Amino acid sequence: MGELHLFESGAAVTVILGLWIIGITRVQTTLALYGAQSAALGLMTVHLGVLRAEPLLVIVGVAVVAVKGLFAPVYLLIAAKSLGCRRDDGVSISPPIQFFGALTGLALILLLHPLRAALPESALPSVGLLLLGMMVMITRRLALSQIVGFLMLENGIFLYTIGQPHTMPMVVEIGVLMDVLAGVMLAGLLAFKINKTFEHIDVTELKELRG
Amino acid sequence: MTIARGLFENALLYSLAICWLAFPLSVLMRGPKANDRVLGGLIGAGSVILLALGMTALASTPATIALPFPFSLGDVPIAFTLDSLSGFFLCVIAIIAGLISPYLRGYCAHLADRADMRIFWTALPALILSMALVVLSANALTFLVAWEVMSLTSAILIATDHEPKATRGATLIYLGATRIATAFLVGGFLWAHALTGTWTFADWHISGIAALGPGLLVLVGLGIKAGSWPFHLWLPIAHPAAPAPVSALMSGVMVKVAIAAMVRLFVIGPAFDHPELGIVILAAGAVSSVWGVLFALIQHDLKRLLAYHTVENVGLILMGIGTCLVARHAGLSIVAQVALAAGLFHVLNHAVFKSLLFLGAGAVDAGAGTRNLDLLGGLGKRMKWTYACFAIGAAAICALPPLNGFASEWLLYQSFLGGAVGAHSPIQRFSFLLLIGVLALVGALAMACFVKAIGVTFLGRPRSKAAESAREADFGMLAGQGALAALCVFLGLAPPAVLAVLDPVTRAAIPGAPPLTAAWTLPTGAMLAALAVTAFAGAAWTSRARRQRPDRTYITWECGFGALSPRQQVSATSFVQPISRIFSVVFQYAENLRIEGESRRLFPDRVTATSTTEAVLETRLYGPLTMLFKWLGDQVIKLQEGNIHAYLLTMLLTLLILLAIGGSIR
Fold this sequence. Notes:
Number of strands of chain B: 8
Oligomer: heterodimer
Number of helices of chain B: 24
């Protein structure tokens, strides 16, 4: 499998998984899908590293699978269980309809390519993933789902960096990964804090503390 | 060059070390007294280093020092210029900071129970160092970083005594002014960068109509900081709120840092060269000098009065710089040289006497517990030394010979006269003649103002209990004031020495000018001798007169008013009432006399007289502007619903719009 082909298929898998997350209401499934998406990204990175004969890229890929594919979803699953949240019905628009909205949006971006001047064709999937992540953040009710949205957004950025012919230095990649790790742990803790203070983690109800 | 470089690096290192030391020391050390002594000493030591650096820069050939790679802002190195201009301003900073350092301990003792001095002691060295770095910076980015540190640390220092609501308001207004100043500066610098493709000041040579846009933006930015009309409104608000040594530093030095940048960008180089720029600077200077002194006259707060005088003196300095630019364009190189020297000399002089006056006002504040002129009076007997120092400072600011204010204003008069004689166009001749009139008017009004300030504060009888029980300042505070007063006298007697120092600066601005020392034509020695003889004769005569006619005690004739009380003395308002009436248009001055009672004409029950004045610029221009921005802010705040999803959506839309814009530009 050629490098370009590998990248295209990997990007397609991640974007499709992202779209799937948009249409899902069960928290458990969302987290599992996120894990799958990250694992797909990580495996693709490993494969790319083998193709380009860059051992560092392989290490990064393995680390991505470990941290984002396994640790983050499992940790958040445990958090979700003990917080007792099962479903996230979304804000104002129900997720299945959002799914179709996102699908149309992505199709429009692909067809019209409005950012043609600013971005190369190969960056489109990552932009799509980024927008999907933001959409999850904007349309979900639970703080936990918003963490997932943020992580998807981060996946979009990662997809962009490995799509470039010269990937970022190892230090940066590992650094970002460490940030994600710390971020997930902190966000999980914060979700507990929010639950303790408000007795729920519904973001739409977090208005009482405004100045 | 190498000596200068080595010294520079060491000086930078030591001063940074002092800055970093100040914080842990101020936190660690117990007891404000010990704390203040050590930290005041540290600041003194730091200013000695700065002074050494400044003197080396004055003596050696100009050099640019760029720090090695990791110390850079993007791909622009952090770079400094060591030349005569930065050397001169470094000396000004160092002298004032050094002479303020003995004053600090006594003053801080009076603040200690109200404010957290740790913050004060942390911000003060940072302010001094950042001012030095602004003066030294060789490119726009280094300049902006140092400028921001300077603005923020000075705002922190203003807020030292933040319990009163007025102080908090003043801090916010000052912060707002600095933000706007920085915005203008950034705009001007970006524009200049777009025109030249470099950030280095020395490589900016924009002339013709292209210089007008960025030049005016930079000028406004610097003008706000310098306190030039019409951007002076933060000065009279921030200075009364700040602790006295901070006011002294800000008014004496920080305002001058903007002048230093102005000289570097508009005179030496010049980065922005257009005939209109000189005229703008000159006009702004003329208006601010008159405006500043007029509004100083009607103030009741000693420090606010001094703040308005800063506006006046900055106006004088700007007049010098503006005259230099105008004369240079008209081909009058000697006039330009003298005008620039007058401006820079006045920078030093104003730094010295204004810090002295602010320290004096601080001593009055600490000793009598108030700065309100309506509550002071008779302090001359209780605070003899402060009175003496304040009087010397006041005489200097009124430009009385042989003090330093006279020396620089004399040079300014000379440049105006030279311009009036030498200028080719009749309009320019007439304008220079007019400026002589302006300068004379300003001098006379300043004199009136300080007669009022001294008369009401130090002479007569106390107007309140607080003034009655005023205590003299401690030795350290007096030492600081005394040293500054001595410097006033010294600089007044040694103008040729100062002009010799300024010679390389003016030579850089006006190539091929004759030696500057030739500009000083007054025989200082003879003047001094004549003055000494007059003073001696006067003293001898009064003492003889006193011996011949001893004091007699008798009952004052009270004209049927009953016992005379301190309230019947000439007050701050009544002293300036005639002047207020003359300039009633500027002040929006109105008098209101109310007489009540049955037979009002002969036996009134009650007579009340009130006079009102209005700060026109603030109420007519800035008031409506502020209201407009407040209204706009109220509209924007409607977006702040507290809804997280709305925030996220706004961010997403912003991102998309920016991407679209970026895509369409590319």
